[in-house]
Amino acid sequence: MSDGGERLGIFGGTFDPPHVGHLVTAVNVRHEMRLDRVLLVVNHQPWQKLGTREISDAEDRYAMVAAAVEGVEGLEASRIEIDRGGLSYTADTLRTLLDEDPTRELFVILGSDAAVGLPTWERADEVREMATIVVVERPGTREATPPPGWSWIQVEVPRLEVSSTDLRARVVDGRPLDYLLTPEVIETIRQRGLYGAQVTA
Ligand code: ATP
Ligand code: MG
């Protein structure tokens, strides 16, 4: 049981861009797991995606996440991996958060597509020791069961078949973004001219 320390959710991602699938997951896992806060941790260099595609600048992705959670109770954008630099490993992030406050209880939040890769993570055993794993089903991906030696808590959240990949294509094609991204994120994309968007004043 909790010793009274902070119950802290860690929801890591590339967030290129952050969409309703991320936000609905974060607020609902926070509620169901009675977490004090959920940090949306913006990857500096997502080692799993390097070399697969162009990834937006970390500062642009951070700006979009900050815009998405501004004023939302219990959700925060985290710079921890950007400030550390280099490749982003969750094991390092969890260690930093525990060093800051050893009484914290950590919960790593993942979509099912990301969860199946857990055993391949850098120092996966440390991640398993330091945090409870919380998984949400991601529609459009295979149903995930914990890999051998792993266990997780499954939390039901509204299933939204939304991806950053689709949203980037929507910007390129000029298709609607409304209701898939918050107005503040759409504004940030336009102001910064991300994904080839027309820059607005
Ligand atoms: P991309 O298409 O670029 O891979 P993405 O939409 O998968 O982007 P990520 O930043 O890769 O978003 O994902 C960060 C985390 O959010 C992962 O744990 C992923 O499983 C989870 N996630 C992303 N989209 C959803 C969704 N629609 N529902 C539930 N979880 C999601
Ligand atoms: Mg993804």
What does this 3D model show about the protein?
With 201 residues, the protein is an alpha/beta fold. The chain has one domain: HUPs (Rossmann fold), CATH 3.40.50. It has eight helices and six strands. It has helices at residues 20-32, 58-69, 80-84, 90-100, 112-115, 124-130, 164-173, 183-192, and strands spanning 7-13, 37-42, 75-78, 105-111, 131-136, 153-154. It has a six-stranded parallel sheet, with helices on both faces. Helix 1 (20-32) links the parallel strand 1 and strand 2 (37-42). The longest helix is centred in the N-terminal third of the chain and has 13 residues, at 20-32. It is globular, with a radius of gyration of 16 Å.
Topology record:
Blueprint: E1 7-13, H1 20-32, E2 37-42, H2 58-69, E3 75-78, H3 80-84, H4 90-100, E4 105-111, H5 112-115, H6 124-130, E5 131-136, E6 153-154, H7 164-173, H8 183-192
Parallel strand pairs: 1-2, 1-4, 2-3, 4-5, 5-6
Helix pairs in contact: 2-8, 4-6
This protein binds adenosine-5'-triphosphate and magnesium ion (MG).
Adenosine-5'-triphosphate binds at residues 13-16, 21-22, 25, 110-111, 113-114, 136, 138, 160, 162-165.
A few lines on this structure:
With 201 residues, the chain is of the alpha/beta class. It has 8 helices and 6 strands; from the N terminus they run βαβαβααβααββαα.
SSE ordering: EHEHEHHEHHEEHH
Shape: globular
Task: Give the tally of structural domains.
Answer: 1
Helix and strand composition category? alpha/beta
Q: How many DSSP E strands?
A: 6
Our count of helices gives: 8
Largest sheet: 6 strands, parallel
The order of strands across the largest sheet is 3-2-1-4-5-6
Assign the CATH superfamily. HUPs
CATH level 1 class label: Alpha Beta
Helix fraction, binned, reads 25-40%
CATH overall fold name: Rossmann fold
Q: Spans with pLDDT under 50 lasting ≥5 residues?
A: none
